[in-house]
Amino acid sequence: MNIRRWEAGRLGANCYLVQCPETGEAALIDPGGDGEMLLRRAEEAQAKIVAIINTHGHGDHIEANGEIKAATGAPLLCHEAEAATIVSPAKNLSLYIGAPYASPAADRLLKDGDVITVGKKVRLEVLHTPGHTVGGICLKGEGVVFTGDTLFYGSVGRTDFPGGSYSQLLHAIREKLLPLPDDTVVYPGHGPESTIGYERVNNPFLAD
Predict the structure, then answer these.
(1) Using one digit for the tens of pLDDT, what is the confidence trace for 91-103?
(2) For residue 126, what are the β-bridge partners?
(3) Looking at the domain 2-206, which fold is it?
(4) In this structure, how many other beta carbons lie within 10 angstroms of the beta carbon of residue 158?
(5) Which residue in 27, 79, 82, 197 has the fewest CB atoms around it within 10 Å?
(6) Where are the alpha helices (DSSP H) in 90-190?
(7) Whole-Å CA distances, 161 to 70, 92, 123, 164
């Protein structure tokens, strides 16, 4: 798979274009704003966006959902527990940063273990990782995992928002992410990439 990353939106969340090298079809993960820029970059990559995926429902990860969906016709996917969050400026917290945004409703509701197929070469498995939000997910591909706001380079997601749980977050990371191979590349929702092996050894939040 081909992976491209851009910072988008007012909080600079990472948006990822995950593209099948054979067909050019692609999933766009967490379009947090700057929809025009994201569409232009996708066009430059000769990508056909066939899925929009939200790792969770906070406004800084969903703000361009509507613009991307309107331009591409791609279905919008999120975990079933985030369906009510993405459409509500109060629940997705965009109301409180001065930019209220209501996303279109999700077209497909995800649950743990679901698989999203893009083209012939991209297969993303849904890992339900609650803690930052109730319906937060990570997406596991071949040798990579997109972790949203669950796991960062040297840190973990905040748990002081509604629906957050520090104990659930650490449990999810230890049960779903740390068993992955050491060389699995971590593509987080903010900041630089990492690897599972690095985080297992060096992340202070994961020390036993």
Answers:
(1) 999 999 888 999 9
(2) 139
(3) Metallo-beta-lactamase; Chain A (3.60.15)
(4) 14
(5) 197
(6) 166-172
(7) 30, 10, 31, 5
Q: Give the domain ranges of the chain.
A: 2-206
Q: How far apart are CA 118 and CA 19, in angstroms?
A: 8
* Residue 116 near residue 157 (C-beta atoms within 8 A): no
Flag residues of the chain having pLDDT under 70.
none
| Residue pair 57/161 in contact by the 8 Å Cβ criterion | no
Q: Compute the CA torsion angle 184, 177, 24, 83 (nearest 10 deg).
A: -160
Q: Which two tokens stand for residue 132?
A: 């930052």
Residues composing the chain: 208
Q: Is the pTM of this model over 0.85?
A: yes
What is the 3-class SS of 149-187, one letter each residue? CCEECCEECCCCCCCCCHHHHHHHHHHHHCCCCCCCEEE
- Give the SS3 label for residue 157: coil
Are 5 and 146 spatial neighbours (Cβ–Cβ below 8 Å)? no
Nearest to 45 by CA among 71, 65, 25, 73: 25
